[in-house]
Specification:
four-stranded mixed beta sheet
Length: 275
């Protein structure tokens, strides 16, 4: 792919790029003649890709395998790899008719108008002129409270890990002071979060349910982890079980709250730190 991106610049075109390897297009259907490639084409003009079309993949088993492969690529640092989407695979399991799609890239408008690609975007990502800069937030902290009643150490660690990952996904890069720190010998240590993360404990799932409700009422960021989430990775089963259970019967294993430090501390002042 890296080689092709250099070679295409020398092609005047117009032309079509076909026979793309399956791992390059995780949403396209495999070719009936050769399963290593997909039914996709790209329109080429003046060394640029102007748009592409492909037969939509409607096989849930194949799609799940493609997503898993793409997820491994993301974990290895490939930022262009497709994110895993379990809900999309579930939708395919219900059935999808044969379909084909074609999209025109903004590069086509850029080429026709003779302007840079950024100026050819239909909806440019620009901040309104009259928008005021966001106010600097005060001191914030995250507190994860876990239930110790009958849980093994690995279950407690798993609970905290999921709660922390949910916070990172929801709040994103604003949690970071910087992307990395550098040692004296030039080694980069990735990321440095600027907010404190504290772990506290309780013996009661009821306490966690009360904490969840109170934190939500105060407008704090809230994440929760239930026993069903640790017993199965099947999202459908978790959703179905939760939908049949009243809130006061949910077995909470952990709750994380994030926001103003005074507010998070006040809500958890009666809970001791995990030890």
């Amino acid at each position: 792919d890296l080689l092709w991106k250099q070679l295409r610049k020398s092609l005047a075109g117009p032309g079509f790029l076909i026979g793309v390897p399956a791992y390059m297009e995780p949403l396209a259907k495999r070719s009936a003649e050769d399963s290593r490639i997909v039914e996709r084409f790209q329109v080429l003009l003046a060394g640029s890709e102007m748009g592409k079309g492909f037969t939509e993949l409607n096989d849930p088993v194949d799609q799940a395998g493609r997503f898993e492969h793409q997820q491994k690529l993301r974990e290895q640092g490939d930022e262009e790899a497709q994110m895993n989407d379990a809900s999309y695979v579930e939708a395919l399991e219900y059935g999808m008719p044969p379909a084909f799609g074609f999209g025109v890239s903004e590069r086509l408008f850029s080429f026709l108008e003779g302007v840079p690609v950024r100026e050819a975007q239909i909806f440019p990502l620009m901040r309104p002129k009259d928008s005021a800069p966001a106010k600097e937030k005060g001191r914030q902290s995250a507190i994860a409270v876990v239930q110790r009643n009958g849980l093994e150490p690995w279950q407690i660690l798993n609970t905290v890990a999921h709660l922390s990952a949910e916070l990172g996904i929801r709040e994103g890069r604003q949690l970071l002071t910087q992307d990395s720190m550098t040692t004296a010998d030039g080694t980069h240590i990735p990321m440095n979060i600027k907010h404190a993360i504290v772990i506290k404990e309780t013996e009661s799932a009821a306490t966690l349910r009360e904490l969840l409700a109170s934190a939500k009422s105060e407008g704090l960021h809230v994440a929760a982890f239930t026993r069903e989430m640790i017993e199965t990775t099947n999202d459908r089963k978790i959703i179905e079980h939760t939908g049949k259970t009243n809130f006061d019967e949910i077995d909470m294993l952990g709750v994380l709250i994030f926001g103003d430090s005074d507010a998070t501390e006040a809500l958890t002042k009666d809970l001791k730190r995990y030890s």
